[in-house]
Amino acid sequence: MGMNLVQKIFSEHLVEGKCEKGEPVSIKIDQILTQDATGTMAWLQFEAIGIPKVKTEVAVSYIDHNMLQTNFRNPDDHKFLQTSAAKFGAWFSRPGNGICHQVHLERFAIPGKTHLGSDSHTPTGGGLGMISIGVGGIDIATTMAGVPFECGMPEVVGIHLTGELNRPWVAAMDVILELLRQLTVKGGVGRVMEYYGPGVETLSVPERATITNMGAELGATTSIFPSDDRTKFFMEAQGRGSDWKELKADPDAEYDLVIEINLSELEPLVAQPHNPDNVVKIKDIAGLKVDQVCVGSCTNSSYQVMSGVGEILDGEAIHPDLSMTVTPGTKQVFEMMGQNGDLTKIIGAGARILESACGPCIGMGQAPPSGGVSIRSFNRNFKGRSGTVDAKVYLCNPFVASAMALRGEIFDPTKTDMTFEIKPEPNSFLINDNFLISPPEDASDVEIVKGPNIKEIPLNDPLADEITAPVILKTGDNISTDDILPAGSEVLPLRSNIPAIAEYVYARLDNTFATRAKEAGKSIIVGANNYGQGSSREHAAMAPMFLGVKAVISKNFARIHRANLVNFGILPLTFDDPADYDRIDQEDTLTILNVNESLNNGGKFTVRNGRTGDEFTASGVFSERAKKILSSGGLLPYLKATLK
Ligand code: MIC
Ligand code: SF4
After folding, report:
1. Residues 531, 563 contacting (CB under 8 angstroms)
2. Is residue 32 over pLDDT 80?
3. Which residues pair with 324 in a beta bridge?
4. Helices marked H in 395-512
5. What is the pLDDT of residues 297-314, one digit of tens each?
6. Do the Cβ atoms of 116 and 133 come closer than 8 Å?
7. I need a surface site. Which of 25, 321, 332, 406 has the fewest CB within 10 A?
8. Which residues of 617-628 are buried (b: 16+ CB within 10 A; e: fewer)?
9. In the structure, what pLDDT confidence band is assigned to residue 643 with cuts at 50, 70 and 90?
10. Ligand 1 atom 12: residue of nearest CA
11. 395 beta partners
12. 3-state secondary structure of 162
């Protein structure tokens, strides 16, 4: 039987295990990406492991999230990241160079390589034929220390593309919105989405990257496209043609599930508040007044996206009742827009141009007005993420978003005579890498600079044999890591200071959480479906650990957050009978019995509710390594003991 692309790349990188669905596998990792908001911890953890130099082929430390230098904190983090990159042998992408995933696609991604990033949208690299996976910072630190990456061999879903995006106003974003509509934010859990079929060659690399980027919203481990002539064209235009190789699934490859998408039949879609899978056709919600439009983010900020936006805004004026921001994804795109006139068109229409960074996507400025409607070409619309708790964020493709900026309301431009054209893919990009600093040959003189914002990493205790603790919080479905630990301009600068950031845990849902947790000393969280969706931020595990959270019992978990809980010694258990969730009240005291024995013998845990006296079971099935990590109290204590 032939192999699909995922099986091919996994087999080529296999260190241990079998590439069969569900089997534990360890693979060698070739490339690493960190970004500043998760990177400070990743690099502190790498330093704590005590390995002198990064062992992967490539490691790049990007600064793109935390860009508002409102006091010493961000610049301290930036200095720390720059000096630690130099010390440990990583490239450093200076603030202003662009959003990590887009810069990585332009300058580093290579088909057939494996790639981990401390950011959930790392799968953007799948647009260029890499296996690119988002993980927590400490998994990055471990991988940089040369430890292979361990995971369960995912199921591979084949997305068979036919037709082409030839309807006006339909764009790559609509492909992934359609998949989110069909599969929901849980539909990709434990799966890789592999694109194939005749529709593939009609999509450019940046369009493919939009689709794989937002595969993260499906909960998928990653998403991948083949590497073909379009990939070659893009890489040659980036001056990296020699890194190209062809990669595709065998003709008789099999998939665990096949989904058909005819690109020619798609319509412009929109995800309504407050989840990316709340997708409808734009025409179904036409008429709603819009207060803000933001185009950009790692999902939609390429040269061609910007050229379309430039065309739509050319000679027009933004509606007086709204504000529009446009963010070129990278310095390369920004410079080229300066040269080709798109910048003038966009500024001329009255849009606000932001520096190449995450910006409004992560609540770093441009919060919408109270109760406002914000249309964004981004990938996430969780409640409060924009910085305004009662704002309503809608996600759609960048072209319809730009049209709405002119009209001031949601409408379907396919029903009008508005038209625009996108510039052809350039056959050579403007290459100027002066914002990328290569690691020095000899780093012996480099001093790592740690300003007062950089605090020690807190450590957990080894797993106790019995955990008795109150239920400090009982949540509903789809809790995102933005709910657990918000980002935004107030909180992001505290990413390298766990005691300070811990004050914000669950602050948006319940601002007494941190105080109550500290008073309780030890606590348990009860969650429902898809607990911990969204970001890879390990702070959403580390800060609760710091506050004494010992276990999370939930109906099920999002992949990266579950791994982060394990990495910080918090026991993630799932209800065997989901109805037991209803039998627990917040503030009940639960006792998890025989913890270590249950962990090592089948993973079935008995839990007693002190209020009712009832007992129920919850499961936690872990790999041998994860068991050891949990009993040591987390990955760092485990590594310190084993890597000596
Ligand atoms: C996000 O989009 O939520 C982030 C901010 O990029 C996160 C990483 C972080 O929290 O630092 C992600 O997607 O992993
Ligand atoms: Fe940055 Fe937003 Fe992309 Fe996260 S989703 S990496 S915050 S642009």
Report:
1. no
2. yes
3. 293
4. 398-407, 481-484, 488-491, 498-501
5. 999 999 999 999 999 999
6. yes
7. 321
8. ebebebeebbbb
9. low
10. 535
11. 271, 376
12. strand
Q: How much distance in Å is there from the Cα of 516 to the middle of ligand 2?
A: 31
DSSP 556-574: -B-HHHHHHHHHTT-EEEE
CA nearest ligand 2 atom 3, residue: 298
Determine if ligand 1 sits within 6 Å of the CB of residue 487. yes
DSSP 317: -
pLDDT tens for residues 73-131?
A: 999 999 999 999 999 999 999 999 999 999 999 999 999 999 999 999 999 999 999 99
CB 525 within 8 A of CB 548: no
Find tokens 């319940």 and name the residue.
510
d(CA 181, CA 174): 10
Nearest CA to ligand 1 atom 2: 535
Whole-angstrom distance, CA of residue 181 vs CA of residue 250? 29
User: Between β-strands 292-295 and 523-526, what pairing exists: parallel, antiparallel or unpaired?
Assistant: unpaired
From ligand 2's centre to the CA of 299, what distance in Å? 8
Which tokens go with 346? 């966009």
Atom of ligand 1 at shortest distance to CA of 121? 13
Q: How far is CA 547 from the centre of its chain?
A: 25
Q: For tokens 């050891």, name the residue.
A: 628
* Domains of the chain (ranges, CATH numbers): 5-265 (3.30.499.10), 277-412 (3.30.499.10), 467-642 (3.20.19.10)
Cα 34 from Cα 136, distance rounded (Å): 10
Q: How far apart are CA 122 and CA 32, in angstroms?
A: 10
Strand partners, 325: 294, 352
* C-alpha to C-alpha distances, 499 to 43, 542, 545, 548, nearest whole angstrom: 18, 10, 11, 12
- Tokens, residue 107: 């300058």
Cα 110 to ligand 1 centroid, rounded to whole Å: 23
Alpha-carbon torsion angle 78, 71, 118, 304, nearest 10: -90
| Cα 391 to ligand 2 centre (Å) | 19
Ligand 2 centre from 116 Cα, in Å? Answer: 16
Mean pLDDT calculated for residue range 183-198: 97
Q: Identify residue 66 by its one-letter amino acid code.
A: N
